[in-house]
Amino acid sequence: MSSLRSLAGIALASLRSRLLTVVLTVISIGVSVALIASVDRVRSEAKASFSSTISGADLLVGARTSGLNLLLYSIFRIGDATNSVSWQSVEYIEALDPVDWVIPLSLGDSHRGYRVLGTDQRYFEHYRFGRDQTLDFTYGQPFASADGAVLGSAVAEALGYSLDDDIVVSHGVGETSFLQHSDRPFRVVGILSPTGTPVDRTVHVSLAGIERMHGGSHHDDEAHSSTHASHEAQEAEHHDSGETHGDEHAGEDEQAHEDEDEHAHEEAHAHEEEHGNQAEPEASDESLHQTETDAQTTVTPDSVTALILGLNSPIAVLTTARSLNEYQQEPLTAVLPGVALQQLWSLIGVAELSLLVVSGFVVVAGLIGLVTTLLSSLSQRRREMAVLRSVGAKPVHIGLLLVSEALAMGAAGALFGLVLTQLVILLAKPVVFDQLGVVLMNGWPTSFEWQIAALVVVASALAAILPAAIAYRYTLADGLLSRA
Amino acid sequence: MSDIAAISLRDLKFSYAGAGSGGELDIERFDVAQGESVFLQGASGSGKSTLLNLIGGVLKPTSGEISLLGANLSSLSSSGRDAFRADHLGYVFQMFNLLPYLDVVANVTLALTFSPRRRSRLDGVSPKSEAQRLLNALGLDESVQAKRVAQLSVGQQQRVACARALIGGPELIVADEPTSALDAQASARFVRLLLTQAANAGASVVFVSHEASLAEHFDRAIDIATLNRAEAASYE
Predict the structure, then answer these.
(1) For A222-347, where are the E strands, in sequence order?
(2) ipTM strictly over 0.95?
């Protein structure tokens, strides 16, 4: 109907004449829409990204802790393990009947703020993320020697590394660390393709590499001159003696400790002398690589942080989990990744909900602003309404005029909100990825965002009912002769 | 056609429910012929606002009959009265006739918005050019038409309102104190322009004002006080 079309034109002209208040109202609605949409984006992307971080694994095993904690530190690299799993237990688990494969994970070191994960070849064979996707290499291949490192895509990109670069790992997981293992650099041998999971932000090295770094002064130099068996015996001995030493001298004077420290230093010096200078001719470098390749096959760690298990049959998952949780030799926790994820959802569900509720209130505040804008203009517009009445506008037209003004502001606000959401995503993308490992993507609004936008438009029209009703009453009371 | 009165009031009674002395109306008989121009003189409180709201169909009489162009307004629904007003009546108010956010021409064509009949009566002339023709005829040239409404003088605004009342050829023009903000000279000029254009369109004019000096321009002049028995009664 042409009178409705003209009414819309009048509404737009009227809005244009109050541009400043209208624009501010539209912005406040837009900001509220963008807030709720962004919160939902981060929420759902985080959920999707957490869910897709690990796939195809049947159990996570670590030292006795909560399943959720185990999931967080072993898979999401959030927080730290308080304890580790002894290598004996690892071997026991590997030998269990239902166990198909095991991925050992050794955490606790970092490289320039990125977590370092000690693992072995099986990680690249069996680790799955997303919809059963394997880890692919953009460059290079898995490490074959103890000094090889495989970088997640984000590490390589952020730090500008390429193949054959040397990197130095520090102890602990802070961005800066006083304890740098600088005498033991790793060489980049592979860079993984992006996965959108914490793998992207991880530096992978071999378990032997981790050992080389921490225990290097103790047994690396011995390892290459001894057999596997004798090394293990030595290591066990050393380990045992260390413990008894600690127990025996607990509370005594510190002289003994200092003695041992000195002893360790001597060993370190001896090591340096023995291998000579790193900058010597190619031949000796070659031989060094040779010994370190051996080291990977011969050196086994004392312990690992966690294990990812794949089982032969899904039927065995629960019984295996139970038997590991009741393992007598060492307190262990075995958890189904899905169950731990559920614990995570229920934990963050409350925070998530309260965030959404707060965002919802912000939307309500935006709508109240819209009603205020309409109401505040109303008394000045009584003359305008009388004029419209005189040319034949029905009271319902006056009401419609206000509703369509509200609709226009609501729609503009919702649209602005959707655009603003994209802007927020664009700006927040790097920060969110860095802090949470969650990948936010620009793109068409999600169905939730369309729904919010539609809801805001409808709510704007509904919110206009009050001012429209007041305007309707004015027009009836004033007739054609408002003296306002 | 001319035997049907533009306005015909019979035994018209109106009172606001619970209202005091103001606004009551009791008119035995009042007729305006088609094409006739009538000057209604009345002080404020004489019931003229009520009378104009009744003629405009915004108020409904308590009893009696209002016929406009042969149509009994009382028999129409309020929505029907709104449509009737849009089709057959043109209004000029005391002041603030214009929507400040529409331009001059759009303020004139506003009168066509709610009346397909008045649109069709343009005979194929576009609303814009008809509005411009009327504005020119009322002495508002292009330079004035290009101005924003707020930049117009009161006299110019009243003439724009006049063009709006005339566009689409409504049979009845109702003007409520349109010259109250104008000086005597401007008032007289305005009244002459209005009456000329109304005569060209064949429209009847009911012009309410307290300025008795303007009465000479009209076919007939009546004091509302003499019409309104309710008012007369309250004086005695």
Answers:
(1) 303-304, 306-311, 332-335
(2) no
Dihedral of alpha carbons A404, A407, A413, A416, sign: negative
Q: For residues A315 and A318, what is the distance between their CA atoms, to the nearest angstrom? A: 7
The answer to whether residue A232 sits within a structural domain is: yes
Q: Is residue B207 part of a domain?
A: yes
User: Which candidate, A393, A426, A394, A323, places its Cα nearest to that of A59?
Assistant: A323
Collapse the DSSP code of B214 into the 3-class scheme (helix H, G, I; strand E, B; otherwise coil) and give the result: helix
Judge contact between A73 and A308, C-beta under 8 A. Answer: no
Whether the CB of B44 is below 8 Å from some CB of chain A: the reply is: no
User: Using the 8-state DSSP alphabet, how is residue B74 labeled?
Assistant: G
- Is B228 part of a structural domain of the chain? no
Task: For residues A203 and A254, state if they share a domain.
Answer: yes
Residue of B nearest to A8 (CA): B113
What one-character DSSP code corresponds to residue B228? B
Q: Which residue has the tokens 């159990």?
A: A59
Q: Looking at the structure, tell me whether residues A227 and A141 fall in a common domain.
A: yes
- Which pair of tokens denotes residue A230? 């004798």
**Distance between CA atoms of residues A249 and A259, nearest Å:** 12
Q: Is residue B93 part of a domain?
A: yes
Q: What angle do CA A143, A147, A152 make, to 5 degrees?
A: 55
pLDDT tens for chain B, 236 residues long, are 457 888 888 888 888 765 554 557 888 888 888 889 999 887 766 777 788 888 888 888 888 888 888 888 888 888 888 888 889 998 888 877 888 888 899 989 888 888 888 888 888 888 888 889 889 888 888 888 888 888 888 888 888 998 999 898 889 998 888 888 888 888 888 898 889 888 888 899 999 888 888 888 899 998 888 887 765 444 43
Strand B7-14 to strand B25-32: parallel, antiparallel, or no bridges (unpaired)?
A: antiparallel
Domain limits at B209?
A: 37-58+85-223
Confirm if B25 and B13 have CB atoms less than 8 A apart.
Answer: yes
* B20–A contact, CB cutoff 8 A: no
Please say whether the beta carbons of A26 and A405 come within 8 A: no
CB nearest to B91's CB, from A7, A13, A390: A390
- Give, in order, the Cα–Cα distances in Å from B15 to each of A479, B19, B21, B51, B72: 15, 7, 9, 11, 19
Helices (H) and strands (E) in chain B, counts: 10, 9
Is the CB of B47 inside 8 Å of chain A's CB atoms?
no
